[in-house]
C-alpha cells in the first residue's frame, strides 16, 4: 500500500497547499503515491516522473485504473482529465467514488462517466448517483460539453457532504443533489473509495451499445493530473465507525467555497443545464414508470424538452436490457483487477 500523507509534517502540507492549489478551487493536489494505488491494468497505468499525473490506457488486452489508498467519509474529489481523441466509440473513462467492493449489495456510488463516440462526434458526460445498493434506480444525467475535452485537460470534481452532492466541471456546478428525508438510504452515506478507470464499455456506452470499440485505434489514452482528495480518511482495514472522528472534517468540508452555491453559481448551473443536458432520469418514464423521485427538481420546460432530447429515443428492448445489466456492474465489477 502506498504511503499516505498523514505522517507528513504540517509545514510541508501547508507548502503543498499554496504551491499546488488547483485551478478554481483552493484545494491541494497530491502526488499519485500520496493518495492512490494501482488498481488494474499493469503497464497500462503510467505515472509521470514527478508523480503528479498518471496516464491510463486501454488496449485490446486491458483497460487500467487506480484507486485511492484510503476510503473517505465524505469529501471533495477532483482531477484534471484529458480524454482520448479521434475515434472513441465504446470507450468509457470514469472518475468516481464507490464502496461496491465492501458493500456489494448496499453500495453507494457517485460517477463521472465519459462516453466515447465515433469520430467527429462529441464525447458525452454522464453523472450518476447510487445510494445503498439502488442499482435498479440509477440517477443518471447526461450532458454535452461546451468545449472539446480531448484538446486539453479540464477539471472534474465531486463534492459529497451529508446534505448535498455537487458535480463540477471546472468551476461550474452542473448538478446538485440535495438530501431529502424521502430519499432515505438512497442518499450515499457510507465511506467510499475514489477511482479512475478506462475500460471497454462497448455493451452500452455509444448509441446504446450499437457502436462498438475499434481496436484499430488502440491505445486509447486518458491523462489524469491535479489529483485532489479532501475529506476524512478512513483506513480500509480498520473500518471503525468514522462518524464521530470525522465530524470536524465534515463540518470544514461543508463550509468550503465549493460547498456553497452562491446565487451566481446557481445561475451558472441553471445555464449549463439548460444548454447542455440531454438526458435526466427524472423524466424517464420508459425506464422507471410514472414515479416521482424525491430529489428531482422538476422543471416544466425540461419535461417538455425531454421528448426532444436526441439522446432519449427509446432504444430497442434487448439493448436497454444489456445496458442496464452492465451499468449495474460497470463501475463496480469491471474495475476489479483480473484474477
Ligand atoms: C440499506 O439497505 C439495506 C438492505 O436493503 C437495509 O437493510 C438498510 O436499512 C438500508 N439502509 C438505509 C440507511 O436505508
Ligand atoms: C402519473 O401519476 C400521477 C399521480 O400519481 C397522475 O396524476 C398522472 O396523471 C400520471 N401521469 C401519467 C402520464 O400516467
TrEMBL record:
One of its GO terms (molecular function) is xyloglucan:xyloglucosyl transferase activity. One of its GO terms (cellular component) is apoplast. Keywords: Apoplast, Cell wall, Cell wall biogenesis/degradation, Disulfide bond, Glycosidase, Hydrolase, Secreted, Signal, Transferase. Contains at least one intrachain disulfide bond essential for its enzymatic activity. Residues 307-339 are annotated as: Disordered. Transmembrane segments: none annotated. GO terms for biological process: cell wall biogenesis; cell wall organization; xyloglucan metabolic process. Residues 1-24 form the signal peptide. Residues 307-321 have a biased composition (Basic and acidic residues). The active site is at residues 109, 113. Its main location: secreted. The keyword Membrane does not apply. It is found in: Secreted, Cell wall; Secreted, Extracellular space, Apoplast. Its EC number is 2.4.1.207. InterPro entries: Beta-glucanase-like, Beta-glucanase/XTH, ConA-like_dom_sf, XET_C, XTH. Catalyzes xyloglucan endohydrolysis (XEH) and/or endotransglycosylation (XET). Cleaves and religates xyloglucan polymers, an essential constituent of the primary cell wall, and thereby participates in cell wall construction of growing tissues. Belongs to the glycosyl hydrolase 16 family. This is Xyloglucan endotransglucosylase/hydrolase. It comes from Musa acuminata subsp. malaccensis. The lineage of its organism: Eukaryota, Viridiplantae, Streptophyta, Embryophyta, Tracheophyta.
Amino acid at each position: 500500500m502506498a504511503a499516505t500523507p498523514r505522517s507528513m509534517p504540517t509545514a510541508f502540507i501547508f507548502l503543498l497547499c499554496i504551491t499546488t492549489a488547483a485551478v478554481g478551487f483552493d484545494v491541494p493536489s497530491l502526488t499519485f503515491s500520496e493518495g492512490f494505488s494501482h488498481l488494474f491494468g499493469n503497464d497500462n497505468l503510467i505515472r509521470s516522473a514527478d508523480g503528479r499525473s498518471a496516464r491510463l490506457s486501454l488496449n485490446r488486452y486491458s483497460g487500467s485504473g487506480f484507486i485511492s489508498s484510503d476510503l473517505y467519509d465524505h469529501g471533495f474529489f477532483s482531477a484534471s482529465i484529458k480524454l482520448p481523441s479521434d475515434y472513441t466509440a465504446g470507450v468509457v473513462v470514469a472518475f468516481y467514488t464507490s464502496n461496491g467492493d465492501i458493500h456489494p449489495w448496499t453500495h453507494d456510488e457517485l460517477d463521472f462517466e465519459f462516453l466515447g463516440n465515433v469520430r467527429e462526434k462529441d464525447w458525452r458526460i454522464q453523472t450518476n448517483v447510487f445510494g445503498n445498493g439502488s442499482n435498479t434506480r440509477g440517477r443518471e444525467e447526461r450532458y454535452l460539453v461546451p468545449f472539446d475535452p480531448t484538446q486539453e485537460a479540464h477539471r472534474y470534481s465531486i463534492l459529497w457532504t451529508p446534505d448535498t452532492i455537487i458535480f463540477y466541471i471546472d468551476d461550474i456546478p452542473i448538478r446538485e443533489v440535495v438530501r431529502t428525508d424521502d430519499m432515505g438510504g438512497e442518499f450515499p452515506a457510507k465511506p467510499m473509495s475514489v477511482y479512475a478507470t478506462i475500460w471497454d464499455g462497448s455493451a452500452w456506452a455509444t448509441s446504446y451499445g450499437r457502436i462498438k470499440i475499434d481496436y484499430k485505434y488502440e491505445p486509447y489514452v486518458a491523462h489524469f493530473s491535479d489529483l485532489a482528495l479532501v475529506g476524512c480518511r478512513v483506513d480500509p482495514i480498520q473500518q471503525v465507525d468514522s462518524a464521530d472522528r470525522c465530524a470536524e472534517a465534515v463540518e470544514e468540508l461543508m463550509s468550503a467555497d465549493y460547498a456553497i452555491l452562491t446565487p451566481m453559481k446557481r445561475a451558472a448551473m441553471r445555464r449549463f443545464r439548460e444548454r447542455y443536458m440531454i438526458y435526466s432520469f427524472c423524466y424517464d418514464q420508459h425506464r422507471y414508470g410514472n414515479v416521482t423521485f424525491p430529489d428531482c427538481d422538476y422543471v416544466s420546460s425540461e419535461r417538455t424538452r425531454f421528448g426532444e432530447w436526441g439522446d432519449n429515443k427509446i432504444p430497442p428492448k434487448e439493448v436497454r436490457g444489456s445496458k442496464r445489466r452492465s451499468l449495474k456492474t460497470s463501475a463496480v465489477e469491471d474495475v476489479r483487477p483480473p484474477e
